[in-house]
Amino acid sequence: MSGQLFKPNHEGKKTAEEILAFFKETGAFLQGHFLLTSGKHSAQYMQCARVLQYPWLAATLGQELAGYFTGDKINAVIGPAMGGIIVAHEVARALGVKAFFAERQDGEMALRRGFTFKPGEKVLVVEDVITTGGSVHEVLSVVKAAGAEPVGVGVLVDRSGGRADFNGLPLRSLVQMEIEVFSPEDCPLCAQGLPLVKPGSRELRG
């Protein structure tokens, strides 16, 4: 593994190829047979926790993502638990604003732990990886219900193939990847008898 990953380095803007190298060299880019949050299957998966475990890389990625929104007069950054917590923290640090996270309560995404927005505050929603963007949509609803104004969406990895749409809000990503996904009934990996892994829990299915 390259020694440069273990040194703080915030000099210069990173290319998508350089950022993707961080994921590959930290083992965050996985290959196998994975069950996605959407219920679909994939042969590849981005386990962002493996790159975000290095604080200097998390800070670098946060700075890079924040760079897309520096002129937007943002008051706060929020991400969904768990994957968006560190991303929100580092993007907010780079922008010099508050960092929040939303979490599930009784199955619904909600603001907890005393987090509140002032009416009309401009809020950036961030996430580590999106495929369908379902969690981001939920957080956007939370922000609106709290009386704040979502102004954009930022993600480390967009694997939606350009199909994610957040009601016209600008979407910015550090890496875009076209990763093929399969419905469970048409999955060639299932047909091969490969164990199905739910990332994060290492739970095997099928």
Can you tell me about this structure?
The chain has 206 residues and is of the alpha/beta class. It has one domain: Rossmann fold (3-Layer(aba) Sandwich). The chain is 26% helix and 30% strand. It contains six helices and eleven strands. The strands form three sheets. It has a six-stranded mixed beta sheet, with helices on both faces. Helix 5 links the parallel strand 6 and strand 7 (149-158). It is globular and about 55 Å long.
Give the helices and strands as they follow along the chain: HEEHHEHEEEHEEEHEE
Average residue pLDDT: 87
| CATH architecture title | 3-Layer(aba) Sandwich
C-alpha-based Rg, rounded: 17 Å
From the spread of the alpha carbons, the general shape counts as: globular
> Strand portion, in percent?
25-35%
SS element count, helices:
6
Q: Which structural category do the helix and sheet elements fall into?
A: alpha/beta
| CA-CA gap between termini | 33 Å
Unreliable stretches: 201-206
How would you summarize the topology of this molecule?
Elements: H1 16-25, E1 29-35, E2 41-46, H2 49-52, H3 55-66, E3 76-80, H4 84-95, E4 98-105, E5 108-110, E6 122-130, H5 134-145, E7 149-158, E8 171-176, E9 181-182, H6 188-191, E10 196-198, E11 203-205
Parallel strand pairs: 3-4, 3-6, 6-7, 7-8
Antiparallel strand pairs: 1-2, 2-9, 4-5, 10-11
Helix pairs in contact: 3-4
Gist of the model:
The protein has 206 residues and is α/β, with parallel strands linked by helices.
